[in-house]
Amino acid sequence: MYPTDPTQHVSHETIYTAIYAQPRGELRRQLIACLRHGHNTRMSRTRGTDRRGQIPDMVSIHVRPPEIEDRLLPGHWEGDFVKGAGNQSSVGVLVERTSRLVLLAKMDDATAASALAGFSAKLNSIPEPLRQSFTYDQGKELTRHQELAAATGVRVYFCDPHSPWQRGTCEKHQRLAAIILAQRNRPLGLTHRTNSMLSPTA
């Protein structure tokens, strides 16, 4: 209602909190039905065990050049994992920060070896001028980040622990990828149609 007045804006967390604070009844059900996930109760945003200190020689997002943060030039990517049931299958999600182009990398499992192979193959399929950096969370699947950098020529940066907003572009599309893949009611994997649904995107 007030697109040009920042003082009238609220965050998505405020909206979610207000909806789930509603007493049980028809209004609450209608509001929850409008949400993307539609859970009856608010789901925890925690990510389980603290994984800090498990990845050697990480380069912090805080030393990332300003042009990456400002999205001035293409070629800077954010990454994440979508894991299947029991971690038996995984898909890597890559989002280019300037164009919001989304690419998916099929992987055999959630191991560091699969992440190295999957992300390397997908990044190397991108023209060299358009693969400059790769920002990730501190998931242990990227333990072999130095090998990834050597194989692809990208600079790898790591977010602070429990800070998904530092990869906000990828965080949004990772959730969409998980929803689409789950709705297809099949083992986690890729098809041409699934890839076309996600790439490119606004």
Give a description of the structure:
This is Integrase catalytic subunit. One of its GO terms (molecular function) is nucleic acid binding. It holds the Pfam family rve. InterPro entries: Integrase_cat-core, RNaseH-like_sf, RNaseH_sf, Transposase-Integrase, Transposase_IS30-like. With 202 residues, this protein is of the alpha/beta class. The chain folds into two domains: 12-44, no CATH class; 61-198, Nucleotidyltransferase, domain 5 (2-Layer Sandwich), CATH 3.30.420. Helices cover 32% and strands 14% of the residues. It has helices at 12-20, 26-33, 66-69, 112-124, 145-152, 168-183, 192-198; strands at 76-83, 90-96, 102-107, 133-136, 155-158. Strands 3-2-1-4-5 form a five-stranded mixed β-sheet, with helices on both faces. Helix 4 (112-124) runs parallel beside helix 5. The radius of gyration is 18 Å and the shape is globular.
